Amino acid sequence: MRLNRILQGDCLEKMADIPDDTFDMSFADPPFNLDKGYDSYKDSKKEDKYFDWCSDWMGEMVRITKPSGSIFLHNIPKWLVQYTCHLADLATFKNWISWDAPTSPMGNTLQPAHYGILYYVKDESQCKFYEMRYPHKRCRDKKDCNLLTKDYGGKKHTIHPFGPLVSDVWTDIHRCKHDRYKDKHPCQLPVHLMERLVLFCTDEGDSVFDPFAGTGTTLIAARRLGRKYLGIELSEQYAKIAADKLAFEKTPSKLNDIWVSCYLNRIHTARESDISEGRPKQFKEGWKELFTNWPDTDDKRRDLNTSDLAFTKEVKNKISKLCRPKKKVQEDEK
Ligand SMILES: C[S@@+](CC[C@H](N)C(=O)[O-])C[C@H]1O[C@@H](n2cnc3c(N)ncnc32)[C@H](O)[C@@H]1O
């Protein structure tokens, strides 16, 4: 199977040509049946028809994922609960990730404030999973307020200097809102959301599949992280935008040989095994060197309450080139 490309066409037709057990990770962000304005797809099927269609492509997705692979499904809770019934016999449930993002009011119900990402594996004894960390949350409301938002009480010196382990509730990634960075597409995902998923269940050189590739977010995340990819997209226009963006993606998202996910001037996600080593745990040299003021004593860690970890000048420059929103990079590089 030739990888590293986007196929334009219907995902069910294209998936039929893909052999069993091909991909290390499959991710689907289908239309949610919310009447969004896609250019080639009518997003308002009868509910039973919509679910039958979802069952067909989910079955195919599971078939073409390797036994050691992971499967992710992004949607609103209403559809995800139905997906779980269908998937119960096909794969093993691991997590419901709640991505905190306001969604459109639906009327006569609590205001929806999260999307779900279902995480399944095909064979639990073979699956890959890596713990991840994200930066501590800090108060940004008042000028000069940089305090950690979580109260660690008297235990501040025990906290991880970079940040906590990623949980199943994600509140640190925002939807793409700024027109300047958005493609002509009604619901594009942020690349750093996809990078977090790619980092936690695949290794460099593994393969990532997306049957509803849109303007290519999953494929870009895979490419930036040194993974192979294949996407399918019905719309000629979206598939072309994705292919054009992929052609600009040349720089691996790596700092001191460590794969990271970053956005604007922050590292958003790093793998625990890439930044720490040994027992008792030490921080890897290549990681500590990214920061000017790595807090290697308890006293310095207590100070983390008020002082942010600062990157060295060289790393700051690298991050600002690596982690600008991609649309801007394209325009600058033209
Ligand atoms: C929610 S969007 C995916 C957005 C994507 N995650 C991104 O960040 O750009 C769903 C996409 O599925 C595409 N689509 C709809 N029906 C399809 C089909 N049968 N085969 C392949 N793609 C399809 C739509 O054109 C749309 O771009």
Features:
eight-stranded mixed beta sheet; alpha/beta; 14 strands; 11 helices; 2 domains; 334 residues
How does this model look, in words?
- This protein has 2 domains: 209 residues, Vaccinia Virus protein VP39 (Rossmann fold, 3-Layer(aba) Sandwich); 118 residues, no CATH class.
- The chain has an 8-stranded mixed β-sheet with strand order 1-9-8-2-3-5-4-7.
- The protein contains 11 helices and 14 strands.
- With 334 residues, it is of the alpha/beta class.
- Helix 2 packs across helix 3 and helix 4 crosses helix 5.
- The chain is globular, with a radius of gyration of 20 Å.
- The site of S-adenosylmethionine has 22 residues, from strand 9.
Q: Strand order within the widest sheet?
A: 1-9-8-2-3-5-4-7
State the end-to-end distance.
Answer: 32 Å
What proportion strand? 15-25%
Task: Give me the Rg, rounded.
Answer: 20 Å
Q: Specify the helix fraction band.
A: 25-40%
The distinct ligands, each listed once, are: S-adenosylmethionine
Q: Sheet bearing the most strands, described? A: 8 strands, mixed
Helical segment count: 11
Q: Examine the coordinates and then state which fold CATH places here, giving the name of the CATH topology of the largest domain.
A: Rossmann fold
Oligomer: single chain
The stretches of 5 or more residues where confidence is low (pLDDT under 50) are 328-334
How many independent structural domains? 2
Look at the structure and give the mean pLDDT. 90
